[in-house]
Design goal:
By secondary structure, the chain is an alpha/beta fold. Helices cover 29% and strands 26% of the residues. The protein folds into 2 domains: 2-122 and 295-325, Medium-chain alcohol dehydrogenases, catalytic domain (Quinone Oxidoreductase, Chain A, domain 1); 125-268, Medium-chain alcohol dehydrogenases, catalytic domain (Quinone Oxidoreductase, Chain A, domain 1), CATH 3.90.180. The structure holds NADP nicotinamide-adenine-dinucleotide phosphate.
Length: 328
């Protein structure tokens, strides 16, 4: 089978096609013919040698994917050959930039008929993170207002839809006028261009001085400092990434007098600590199946063009998800 490997850390061109023997499923494992793999910033960071964890090289990136079960190992229950599944794991375990993946049965859920496998492949990282952060951590409720940084990104475009589904008002921050239009179409009520607007002043204007109830921050750096200022009394800030790769200068007086709660979130470490994402992924899949959400896919690339997928994500120009489409 064909895989895409990182043999040496570096630029996107370091993603190279390689051959590996077809794997055989062991106890508790599904052998999945991978229809699509999600491409994520964690893959970019791993490829360039900047990710906080990962296996030794050569390694196959890809923390999420979806496809069809083609064989099952001993002790597998609840899955059979022919089932459509989505799966997840750390970089290289199994690494979904490959034609055939060994997926642990407790890291897979069934995908309902009618849900596209490329859309399903985009759920376990960006969508699940937005879902858990807004619902479980921030406890966003109907009638509240949420500030979403990088609102056109994989996480952000999911968060906009999830927040609207919850009945919240969305203020989305993006980096271009095109993205402002795009997130409006997704449902954002107010859009701000981070290069043109004073984010904190605009939030104050839109909320008539009350501040937002929730800020979802995948950007870090300046955006985290803005989030602390932008939330109102009793507000909640969830920080889940640092796309800016920059520290934040914060003034504790921006949040403690308002009794603000700050949550951190990191999916893989939460799972390592024992959190089981399957119930929330099943809820998400049902919502996609019911048509409450669409997973926007900006571009899909064949396995051989994985480098192009990385370059697109790296450019910051993508809207929604970027995926690799692998097996028919
Ligand atoms: N903690 C977790 O478990 C977890 C889970 C999922 C994702 N993440 C992380 O969350 C972040 C977002 O993921 P994603 O898939 O939504 O990313 P993405 O689709 O690649 O989007 C990132 C966006 O961030 C915006 N951005 C704002 N400031 C930026 C800056 N200084 N440099 C570069 N981009 C900047 C850009 O959009 P604009 O120009 O429109 O602002 C860019 O398109 C990533 O860092 C990812 O690794 C973390």
């Amino acid at each position: 089978m064909r895989v895409v490997q990182v043999a040496e850390f570096g630029p996107a061109q370091n993603l190279v096609l390689a051959e590996e023997p077809d794997p055989t499923p062991g106890a508790g494992q599904l052998l999945v013919s991978v229809a699509a793999a999600g491409v994520n910033r964690s893959d970019l960071l791993f490829r360039s040698g900047r990710y906080h964890s990962g296996p030794p090289l050569p390694a196959v990136p890809g923390g999420e994917g979806a496809g069809t079960v083609v064989a099952v190992g001993p002790d597998v229950t609840g899955f059979a050959v022919g089932d459509r599944v989505l799966g997840w794991g750390g970089i290289g375990a199994p690494g979904f930039y490959r034609e055939l993946a060994l997926v642990q049965q407790d890291k897979a859920v069934l995908v309902p008929e009618g849900v596209d496998l490329a859309a399903a492949a985009g759920l376990p990282i960006a969508w699940l993170s937005a879902w858990h952060c807004l619902r479980a951590l921030a406890e966003l409720r109907a009638g509240e207002t949420v500030l979403i940084h990088a609102a056109a990104s994989g996480v952000g475009s999911a968060a906009v839809q999830i927040a609207k589904d919850l009945g919240a008002t969305v203020i989305g921050v993006v980096g271009s006028a095109d993205k402002q239009r795009w997130i409006s179409e997704l449902g954002a009520d107010h859009t701000l261009n981070r290069h043109a607007a004073d984010i904190v002043a605009e939030v104050e204007r839109v909320t008539e001085g009350r501040g937002v109830h929730v800020a979802l921050d995948a950007v870090g750096g300046l955006a985290f400092a803005q989030s602390l200022k932008a939330v109102g009394s009793g507000g909640r800030v969830v920080a889940l990434a640092n796309v800016a790769l920059a520290p934040s200068t914060v003034d504790t007086r921006d949040f403690y007098p308002k009794n603000v709660r700050i949550n951190g979130f990191q999916l893989t470490n939460l799972m390592r600590a024992g959190w089981d994402p399957r119930p929330e992924l099943r809820e998400l899949l049902s919502a996609v199946h019911e048509g409450r959400f669409t997973v926007p896919i900006d571009a899909s690339f064949p396995l051989a063009d994985a480098a192009k997928a990385h370059l697109l994500l790296e450019s910051g120009d993508s809207q929604g998800k970027v995926v690799l489409t692998i097996q028919a």
